[in-house]
Amino acid sequence: MASKIRILDGGMSRELVRLGAELKQPEWSALALIDTPNIVRQVHEEFIAAGADVITTNSYALVPYHIGEERFAKEGRALIALSGRLAREAADAETTRSVLVAGGLPPIFGSYEPQNFDPARVQDYLSVLVEKLEPYADVWLGETLSLIAEGEAVRAATEGTNRPFWVSFTLEDADTQAAIANPKLRGGETVAEAAEWAAGSGAAALLFNCAKPEIMASAIKTASAVFAAKGVKLDLGVYANAFESNTDDGAANEALHGTRADLTGDRYTGFACDWVEAGATLVGGCCGIGASHIHSLAARLKGTSA
Hints:
Elements: E1 6-7, H1 13-18, H2 30-35, H3 37-50, E2 54-56, H4 64-93, E3 100-105, H5 122-133, E4 139-145, H6 148-158, E5 165-169, H7 176-181, H8 191-201, E6 205-209, H9 216-230, E7 235-240, H10 265-278, E8 282-285, H11 291-301
Parallel strand pairs: 1-8, 2-3, 3-4, 4-5, 5-6, 6-7, 7-8
Helix pairs in contact: 3-4, 3-11, 4-5, 5-6, 6-8, 8-9, 9-10, 10-11
InterPro entries: BHMT-like, HCY_dom, HCY_dom_sf
Protein name: Homocysteine S-methyltransferase family protein
Binding site for Zn(2+): 210, 286-287
């Protein structure tokens, strides 16, 4: 089984801060691209050194929600291209194995904000991200999506690019026990409904991210059952966050939330083993999961000495 597992990278923001970049709202991780792009590349390199097989472009905050409409219009294309180039350079510098670059496609109208989704405007921004990341991306990753409609927007935006697309939904996790019993997206749709959509969407992988690790195995089991019933094979994946419980009621990146002291590399890897047992083949980390966690994942799940 280990040979089938691919390790994703971890969360970008805290690694940027750890290495000396400044993060503040509204720009958030986009500020590092503007002021310290060398640190962005260093984060990519450290995740690769830790064992990541896939790194995601630092394009999550390159939307008007963070950088504003005016800056997006004037500088967005150049910043998006820079995020792609930095990831591509880091991946190509690894000569011992192949590292894929995922072109990160964020929720355009804000994390954990399904009520703000605007189907009439979403392609105005997604199309720019796809255009400028396409020269650098091996796969597309629509991530931290709260609605199936957001996944469908990613499918439409990437159609015709000749790149596979992965879609990753964030899960409701305010009540962990309830979520385990009936896992739902943050927009209220069920994981089963999302899996039904993914099965017919042409997606190459369905993932779940930016929610507590405790609920992820249930989501993987639910999606796996849907795929088995429909006779389809898609990769399944997880990259959970490390947010403290009392910070989960706000938007995902409205501040630098506290992270769980108990979620060591070993404990996080223990959760990841459960996800793999449930059927996941793509495993990494989201907010608060750093290079040390990815090192633990790679060592346990792939037997590496990264």
